[in-house]
Specification:
Order of helices and strands: HEHEHEHEHEHEHHEEEHHHH
Oligomer: single chain
Radius of gyration: 22 Å
Bound molecules: S-adenosylmethionine
């Protein structure tokens, strides 16, 4: 255990480490490091970490959040792309024997394989895998959708993201934030915004507000649909041109066999206005629409 005032969450400790290693921040890697222990404690609490968990951290940076994760979790796997941070991490994480640092691009990692390696090497029989991160904002969506679509065996994903993105993930039908991202994230998980975080909690300060969001994976998808890929194609097509009616948006996307008339008829059969916009449809209604069009195309 490192005393709290000697952890990197103390801004003076972070500044001293930056100076010692002559580290310069790389904008291209989305490097905004946390310097606020209240925020870090909120992340740890929202992630509900126990000593039976393996935590996968995306982008440990200098190891600020990692120091807290190491004290709460059984094992931590921290994947960092920036090689220049490795000597710093070697020093800041030296007191912990339960952290494995991997120097790689998270988008190229097989997380399941990393988890199995740690399980075997450390002889650690975990109860759950949890992903926790202060994400590099430039690749938020590919990281989160990759975790869902590749069926990474993580029970939950608790991440700091741009506030606007957290609001989109959490949005209900009808509002301005509701769109393809809301539907995709909510198909895979239950969303909960745990905290809003202002720019002064980071060094350097980001130009946008941030929020911590927890995505708890559903055991079973909340809707059943015959062709999941078709449902997502319809969702993307209807939000591509937000101002268009759903019928026009989908027919403009040129999906084979799906005409404007077929979409209009399907909407009427669902008891909806045929000129409705996509932003008014719930996930269950998109699933129902996909099933009707799937049957019509067969
Ligand atoms: N966790 C640290 C903290 O909270 O202070 C740093 C968070 S910073 C917002 C994002 C981190 O992700 C940086 O350390 C950056 O180098 C790293 N990163 C950026 N792109 C990455 C990628 N594709 N794979 C792994 N790490 C990445």
């Amino acid at each position: 255990m490192i005393p709290d005032n000697e952890k990197l969450s103390n801004p003076q400790v972070t500044i001293a480490a930056i100076k010692k290693y002559g580290f310069s921040f790389q904008k291209k890697f989305g490097q905004n490091f946390l310097i606020d222990d209240h925020v870090i404690n909120k992340i740890i609490k929202a992630a509900d970490i126990t000593k039976d968990d393996i935590v996968v951290e995306i982008g440990p940076g200098m190891g600020t959040l990692t120091q807290y994760l190491a004290e709460s979790a059984g094992q931590v796997i921290a994947v960092e792309i920036d090689t220049k941070l490795l000597p710093i991490l070697a020093e800041t994480l030296a007191p912990y024997d339960n952290v494995t640092v991997i120097n790689n691009d998270i988008l190229k990692c097989d997380i399941e394989e990393l988890v199995n390696e740690v399980k075997e090497k450390k002889g650690f029989d975990y109860k759950a895998v949890k992903v926790v991160a202060n994400l590099p904002y430039y690749i938020t969506t590919p990281i989160i959708m990759g975790l869902f679509e590749k069926h990474v065996p993580a029970e939950s994903i608790t991440v700091m993201v741009q506030k606007e993105v957290a609001d989109r993930m959490n949005a209900a039908p009808g509002g301005k934030d509701y769109g393809a991202l809301s539907l995709a994230v909510q198909y895979y998980s239950e969303t909960y915004i745990a905290a809003n975080v202002p720019p002064n909690c980071f060094i350097p300060r980001p130009g946008v507000g941030s929020a911590v969001i927890r995505l708890t994976k559903h055991d079973k998808a909340p809707v059943e649909v015959k062709d999941e890929a078709l449902m997502f194609r319809l969702i993307h097509a209807s939000f591509e041109q937000r101002r268009k009616t759903l019928k026009n948006g989908i027919s403009n996307a040129g999906l084979p066999g799906i005409t404007k008339e077929a979409v209009g008829e399907a909407l009427i059969s669902m008891g909806l206005d045929e000129n409705i916009r996509g932003e008014r449809l719930s996930l269950a209604e998109f699933a129902q629409l996909a099933d009707i069009l799937y049957d019509a195309c067969e």
